[in-house]
Design goal:
The protein is of the alpha/beta class. Helices cover 23% and strands 32% of the residues. It is built from nine helices and 15 strands.
């Protein structure tokens, strides 16, 4: 049986902290456990590698440009070095399809993708390089915002990430490298959780989605009422659908449909994108995309309704 060779992919724009992180973890024997490893560097960062120091740790280094990032070249490197681990520092300006769709040597398996973000330039990149930035965030298992300070909009950034990538762990680091996973001040939700019933205003759906997905236990057993559009995934069959809304995530050009599975015996009678008013009770079940349990809605009544005044919902308090 072919032995799996774990591949770790570090993504991010120049200056985002990829190389600094790579140097720190690779020079710590705990990461590679002293095994023969291969580091593929796809760009020259602000931080330079000490190749000799890495070689002393049994880590070989190869610098790759976009032209020679090919299946043949990777297979050649795999045969040359026979690594037990592979770390790829990927160029943030290259299309991600290039690395994720390329044929790699037998046994190479991507086990973790980490995206690095300079918190001081995040808004600039989102506004000017939307697609590339969002592709990096969507494909990451972990997202590290570094160079954070008291002005970093941690809660806002985290909500934006959670809207497009439910499974990623989001980590914030201060400028001195220390971890800071405290959010901005706890802000009251625009609806009450004190009673047994939650009535959502149209503009509150985005925040409901984020908070209920992050904290399902707070919502289990509560009645919920809201206006939504119908989405009927083929995999859900005739007795379930998704009542949801289109939401603006990180930027105006990045719109995603968000919502929770809803069990309804007459789901087959609903038309895709039809506006409905949902009344039901919140329960929970396993979501593959969440990597754990998330809310589901057991419908008690679904009725036709008019469209919301604003087609989109947002994630701002």
């Amino acid at each position: 049986m072919e032995k799996e060779i774990p591949v770790y992919v570090f993504m991010g724009f120049l200056g985002s902290g990829k190389t600094k992180f790579s140097k720190e973890v690779l020079l710590d024997q705990g990461f590679t456990e002293g095994q023969k490893s291969l580091l593929l560097v796809c760009e020259d960062g602000e931080e330079e590698y000490d190749v000799k120091a890495l070689n002393d740790k049994k880590i070989d280094v190869e610098f790759i440009n976009e032209e020679n990032l090919t299946s043949d070249h990777l297979i050649e490197l795999g045969n040359k070095y026979e690594p037990k681990n592979v770390i790829i520092e990927y160029n943030g300006m290259w299309e991600l399809d290039k690395i994720f769709n390329i044929k790699v040597p037998k046994g190479w398996t991507v086990v973790q993708v980490i995206s690095f973000v300079d918190a001081t330039t995040f808004d600039v990149y989102v506004n000017n390089m939307k697609k590339i930035m969002m592709d990096q965030l969507r494909n990451a298992d972990m997202i590290i915002f570094n160079r954070c300070d008291e002005n970093t909009k941690k809660a806002e950034y985290r909500r934006s990430i959670r809207a497009v990538n439910r499974r990623a762990q989001v980590v914030f680091e201060n400028k001195d490298g220390s971890a800071d996973n405290s959010m901005d001040e706890e802000v009251a939700l625009p609806y009450s959780l004190d009673g047994d019933e939650i009535v959502l205003q149209d503009e509150d759906f985005g925040l409901f989605y984020i908070d209920a997905a992050d904290n399902p236990e707070k919502y289990i057993g509560k009645k919920v009422k809201f206006r939504a559009q119908v989405h009927r995934p083929e995999s859900y069959g005739k007795n379930a659908f998704v009542p949801g809304r289109f939401a603006m995530t990180c930027c105006a050009n990045d719109i995603a449909f968000i919502g929770f599975k809803c069990y309804y015996g007459k789901a087959a009678t609903l038309a895709d994108r039809e506006w409905v008013y949902v009344e039901g009770t919140i329960d929970k079940e396993y979501y593959e995309e969440f990597g754990g349990e998330g809310p589901v809605i057991i419908a008690e009544e679904i009725s036709a309704t008019s469209k919301a005044e604003d087609d989109l919902v947002y994630f701002n308090y």
